[in-house]
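This section describes the prediction task in plain terms. A model, or a person checking by hand, is given the sequence of a single protein chain and must write out its three-dimensional structure as a string of tokens. No templates, partner chains or ligands are provided. The sample shown here is typical of the held-out split.
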Amino acid sequence: MNKDGKIYYTLDGKTPTNKSILYKGPITITKTSTLKFIAIDTFGNISPVYTRIYIIDKILPKVISTTPCKNQKNVSRNNALTVKFSEKIKNSTNYKKITIKNLKTNKYVSITVTIKNSTIYIKTKIPLEANTWYNINIPASSVKDISGNNLQKAYNFNIKTGK
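The expected answer:
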């Protein structure tokens, strides 16, 4: 306020009045809330109602599907693999540790990884070996949602290429 007075607020979306909670210092918001507040100066003039919405997101991203599917056989040796998440994601601390491993040779395959909305696209730089099992590893904290919630547990799945 630029004048002497008091600020009153609500956290339940109701319109505040001079009977609402008196602002005295920092407000702790622990769940999604609608903060509404007014200022009343010493002459009784009431400001417009100001509204701020705070969204508290504690839901962690999780894998909802992969293409190809877990343990799928006769997979194309050239197509990109996709891992779809429950919400939009972005890269996080262990993003560069996403891997594809040849289970016959125990060697890692050279890949490029990109994210678009809620999906990771993994493309191999050369075709995969024929009739071979591969492990795809998405480490914990390799991606996070828009609110900063990290993937908490690594996600692994195997596929087997065709001819």
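For orientation: The chain has a mean pLDDT of 96.
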